Sequence to fold (453 residues):
Amino acid sequence: MACLERIAAENPRINALITVAREEALAQAVVLDAEARAGRFRSPLHGIPIALKDAIDTAGTPTTAGSALFESRVPAEDAHVVRRLRRAGAVILAKSNLSEFSLTATNATSHFGAVRNPWALDRVSGGSSGGSAAAVATRMCFGALGTDSGGSVRLPSAWCGVVGLKPTDGLVSNSGIIPSVAILDTCGPIARSVEDVAMLFGQMVGYDAMDIRSIDRPAEDYASSARQPVARLRIGIPRKGYFDDLDPQTARCVEEALRVIGKLAGGVKDVTVPPVMEFLDAFVNAAEIYSYHEKMLQRQADADRYMPGTRKVLQWCVGYLEDAAGGTAAGKLARYIQAVARLDSHRRTIDAAFTDFDVLALPTLKGSPPTLAEALQVEGADEAKVLVPIDNTLLFNVLGLPAVTVPCGFSSQGWPVGLMIGGPRFSEGRLLALASAYEQSTEWHERVPARAK
Fold:
């Protein structure tokens, strides 16, 4: 009941949640409470209320993708990850707001209205999983799931002052999740602490034969892995490119965080990481996005229902695909196949780059959250403009690598700043351990927005 009371108090001003499954959650809680009294506990998540980004299918409960096109869509089946969480005893409390079809980075563009940043209501929460991060920050739930195709778990987690993990590609199934950029998509947990993220993540991981990218790996206790020693970890700092044009307030917080991490770990050194677009052909992005929306765009009645910011993204995709590869169908197909092959090659060989360092540490984002007014103006304008650069977060999606963001300070205006720690494939335990050691050495994670105390 405490979370439901918090939702009633906080959601009207934050707009983090689209659907609150009150009756279903209370019914789940009754069953789980009876099991607990009988001494039967399914997992560490037994009875824990969580929210799901509203791109993740839930049987019998609307899953809208934040769009008017799907406002009446009610799936018949749960997504694979939802089935796992239900078996683990998690209580599915609500479906969280998001950028329409997870295609913009601010969460200002949703059919159900913008998500406001709980630290400054005139600012964006970050997207596309902004509702999940804002709900966690304001204590409407104990944890939440988001999806991440370019930073959509880590970006709002950083700006809302919580912890967010983007897993290794394939560890968590995408079956039953509405895609953004399917080849880059991952589903990840958001919570108040690294320990909570580790416990939630541990119940999400599992092989799914229906997901062609799913990976069958031995089970790992991520909560235990997050407690492993970090004194010998070597930290690489990719300053060139990934620290360029940092907001001074962000730079101050990140540099202090690196100083703390340097004392906890086995050393810090500058390293070179190529620009993210050396690994990804934008043609792949455009093709992946367009492939899902093609039929809806061809029906004028559907095309007119997209939000302006989403429509602009889709129009860019169409224009890029029409202009690319010499205009021939054969040329476009060849370019896509060749680009995907190069991307797969990078993903299979990238672990070899981690030779004289074990993990990377860098700013999650380079600046502070823009105002909602600015985001709506830019996303709805005809002229294309990058309001939120995502190169730092996108790098890990492109290469299929895990990365976690953890609060590392606040600007003078009181806005949270995030530090991102990333590593080779399947290094989640190591990343969580370093993030936890840093968290325990600082007090940033203990701060909460004024109304959430």
Remarks:
- The mean pLDDT is 95.
